[in-house]
Amino acid sequence: MSEVIRLLPDNIANQIAAGEVIQRPASVVKELIENAVDAGANNIELHIKDAGKTSIQIIDDGKGMSEMDARMSFERHATSKITSAADLFTLTTKGFRGEALASIAAIAHVEMDTIEQGEQIGTKIQIAGSKITSQEPSSRGKGTSISVKNLFFNVPARRNFLKSDNVETKHIIEEFNRIALTHPEVGFIFSHNGNVIHKLDGAGLRKRIVDLFGRNFNDKLVPIEEETDIVKVKGFIGKPEFSRKTRGEQYFFVNNRYFKDSYFNHAVVAGYDNLMPPKHYPSYFIYLEVPSNTLDVNVHPTKTEVKFEDDRSIYSIIRSAVKLALGKYNIAPILDFEHEAQFDLSIEQQNSPIRQPEIRVDSSFNPFKSSSSGSSSGFSGSGSSGSFGSSGGSNSFKSLKPNKEEWEDFYKITEEAQEELKTEEEEEISFEEPLKSSSNKIQLHRNLLLIQVKSGAMLVHINRANERVLYDELMEHFMLSPIAAQQLMFPYEYNLLSTQKLEWENNSSTLKRLGFDWDWKNNTLVLSSVPSMLEVEYVTQCLDGIIEKITHEELDKGELVHELILSLSAAATNHRSKALSEEEMNYLIDRLFQSEQHQYSPSGKRILNTISIEELNNYLS
Ligand code: ADP
Ligand code: MG
């Protein structure tokens, strides 16, 4: 009988190992930047072409390598970072498995140019499919440059698995963000196809967050800090009012290493208690420090999962640190009626009577059927706040027809979303409609309407009601034809980061459909038109919302449209209401009750609540 078991040649073993460590261009970026950080670099450059599929280059000013080490570094299990298994528990470096360079060299064309600190002559090595193809002295001044071309050139199956350039770029940006956030003290340059996406100077954490995610983040962050023997907690968490329906920036780091952990994520969310609307997610940048012998980072090849010795205690500490941070931030007394908490907490919903909702909708209305009735849009460009579109009724779009197949998916999404909302809604308490008398409404503190209803009094938050009505109209309208734009007398300028510019351009057809039109002055967006219902002074607020949605969330087209319209309706309505005439109050309430979702604003906040006659009388007893 002949033996059938053979040892695999190194290059094949490396290819197999590469499958674990290197899944996509972003994995190469991660491993190489980590190596640069481990080499003590103060400045790191990342240049990619075609989402990293064609080339990835990383240049650092770290300590470099000798000729011997440069060759050795491509061997499997070649590492300078540990010498025994026990070292795994006293790690101070990102890498330690000695697999990355060997794996990358097995599946790409790699060129390394490096010089050891203090030496005169460097080494340039070319390697492809695990074989060194050339080696020569080099005249490099400092550090190391590694370029990785034609990723997966010899593993076509893997190459075929790669996603579109857009998706792969997003993965790279995510890896980049994680490392840039771990090391705010290191300067970074990041370019894609020759365009600089980030140029980050070494800075403190707050500045790094703002440089990466945009200046509007500055107002959203609350510092978090806690120190115990088991763990030190530092960093920033997002104010509850900036929480969102989709996962945003959620980052955990431990001992200078990014990690994912759904258990600790739960601790953070628990710390927000009921300060967040249901199904919303907070942003956070939380840095833990634990004694290194209580942490195992070697549980996963890509090292994004780690194991803590005392995760239960850490859970409680994180939760209370979050609570404490939010408590401190909330200490300032809030007397302003516009603040959400005032409205939400003032009335106990569980005491209100349960009633069947009565919703008046035109059930025969079908936006796809043309009819002879008027086609005037409710968005004629008047730009008036609060009482927008008073010329348009619920069927003012009847004669418009859907004109683009590409929006078909959108219907599906909205239907699904509506279903979901409906099921949520069923658990909620329903409200009777206000009485139809003309003089039963009083505007309180501009922002609230007090309305007499049969069973007592109803309080309506005007901005949220406006937001709901506008949102519903826009969603309905958007499916059929582009939203009316208003030409600006003076172009409106708004600075973007390069990443944001990329995403803006990626979504240009949707943004044009919303009523925006623009030119570029470098990274500055120069708007020549904006949606007609948006007043110029609220354009920044609207753009802040839009930028946040298009840059940091992986949304499909339908979800994105929903989010963008949400940003637009919030910006067009979320400001101090003007004094409403009786007619305007009636119109608003009429429109509100035509909405199936008249209890909640599109961003999930309560629009109205009733107080029973009994409760009202109790106030005086
Ligand atoms: P690991 O990082 O797990 O040790 P790698 O395969 O990523 O394994 O790297 C192997 C070795 O090559 C490292 O331990 C380090 O000594 C050296 N090395 C890699 N990249 C650099 C760099 N940019 N500068 C200096 N040395 C490097
Ligand atoms: Mg490494």
Automatic annotation (TrEMBL):
Residues 372-401 are annotated as: Disordered. The keyword Cytoplasm does not apply. InterPro entries: DNA_mismatch_repair_CS, DNA_mismatch_repair_MutL, DNA_mismatch_S5_2-like, HATPase_C_sf, MutL/Mlh/PMS, MutL/Mlh/Pms-like, MutL_C, MutL_C_dimsub. This protein is involved in the repair of mismatches in DNA. It is required for dam-dependent methyl-directed DNA mismatch repair. May act as a 'molecular matchmaker', a protein that promotes the formation of a stable complex between two or more DNA-binding proteins in an ATP-dependent manner without itself being part of a final effector complex. Belongs to the DNA mismatch repair MutL/HexB family. SUPFAM superfamilies: ATPase domain of HSP90 chaperone/DNA topoisomerase II/histidine kinase (SSF55874), DNA mismatch repair protein MutL (SSF118116), Ribosomal protein S5 domain 2-like (SSF54211). Residues 380-392 have a biased composition (Gly residues). One of its GO terms (biological process) is mismatch repair. GO terms for molecular function: ATP binding; ATP hydrolysis activity; ATP-dependent DNA damage sensor activity; endonuclease activity; mismatched DNA binding. This is DNA mismatch repair protein MutL. It holds the Pfam family DNA_mis_repair. GO terms for cellular component: mismatch repair complex. Keywords: DNA damage, DNA repair, Endonuclease, Hydrolase, Nuclease. Residues 209-327 form the DNA mismatch repair protein S5 domain. It comes from Brumimicrobium glaciale. Residues 441-580 form the MutL C-terminal dimerisation domain.
